[in-house]
Every structure is written in structure tokens, then in C-alpha cells.
Predict the 3D structure of the following.
Amino acid sequence: MVLSVMKRITLAFYESLTGKLPVRDWLLQLSEEDRKLVGIDLATVEYGWPIGMPICKSLGSGLWEVRTDLSDKKIGRVLFCTHNNRLWALHGFVKKSQKTPKADMDRARKRMKEIVK
């Protein structure tokens, strides 16, 4: 018996006015192993949305984060919002402190405003 699993929400990368895809570019800077780990977590969100901890956490006001444990005890984050049945990947970074830096959240919120007009 073959089960057909449908995505509940589709991943889309934020694109700047100049055509840059900052989350995709960030992913390409990661090692292949770390890219796969982030990809698995993003796919988990796509197929399981809405999903909570430990993979996904609300940061408030429609902003969410995908939480990925990377190699070498690093922690990766992809900040996203949802709009028109899309999971919009807004900003990706390797976390260096316990709290998500305000600058990273501000950058994601600014991009979210461009999408959710």
C-alpha cells in the first residue's frame, strides 16, 4: 500500500527587490551536512504545519523560527512567516547566543512586511 503525503504549506524563499535570495545564499554557505539538516527540518514544517517545539517556535506577531541542531554543536535558525499558504523563509543564521539577536529579528520582520502587504 502506498501512502500519498501532501504538503500542508509550501516553502518559498524571500526575494529582495534586487533579486537576491538571502536564505538560499546562507544555506549554500553551510556545509553539505548542515544544509541537509536544515532541509530536513524545513520539510518537516512543510509536511506537518502547524508544528511546535522542538523544531518550530513562535517569536510573536506572525514571525516563527525553525530550530536546527547543526554539526559541531552549532545552532541554525531560519526565521519565517506564513502568507497565502506559503512558508516564507525570511532570514537564516547560525545562532551564537541564547537569545535570538534583535538585529536578526528586525531583518526578518522588515522582509515579512514586504511580503504581507
Q: What stands out?
A: The longest helix spans residues 32-48. The CA atoms of residues 54 and 67 lie 7 Å apart. The two ends are 44 Å apart (CA to CA). DSSP finds three helices and five strands in the chain.
